[in-house]
Amino acid sequence: MAEESVDRRVPFALLDDLKRELTNRYSLSSLGKSAYELQSDFGPILEDKMTSYSSDTLSRIQSEVTDLRKITVSTVDKLLERGTRLELLVTKTNDMSESAFAFKREAGRIQRHMYWKRVKMGVGIGGVVVVGFYGLVSMICSPTLHC
Length: 147
Fold this sequence. Notes:
Blueprint: H1 9-25, H2 35-54, H3 57-140
Helix pairs in contact: 1-2
């Protein structure tokens, strides 16, 4: 008897293996003995065979393959998601590069503008100082600067 969840080939393979082991190990004359007489010799062999067949190798391998398939699908999904994120990151990097170039160009333009503004201010202040100095000197002396 076997559980319904066990494949039909497993119990029959066990029985065939036990039959082969029994006929190889014991002669025909010892096969006429009662089951209890062979239990001490054949019991450990029977237990070992039942253990090996209860952990059906094919079912275990199929289960492992199914698990590996699930893991592979999960890994591929993660790789695709990571690829999408990398593409987004590359796009953002390109945008930032363009923005940095525009910022640098605009900063240079503003720097030149401020330089000329300072030059104009310096010239204006210099002109006011010269006119003020001329006015002071012309008050002290005559406007023709004959002191």
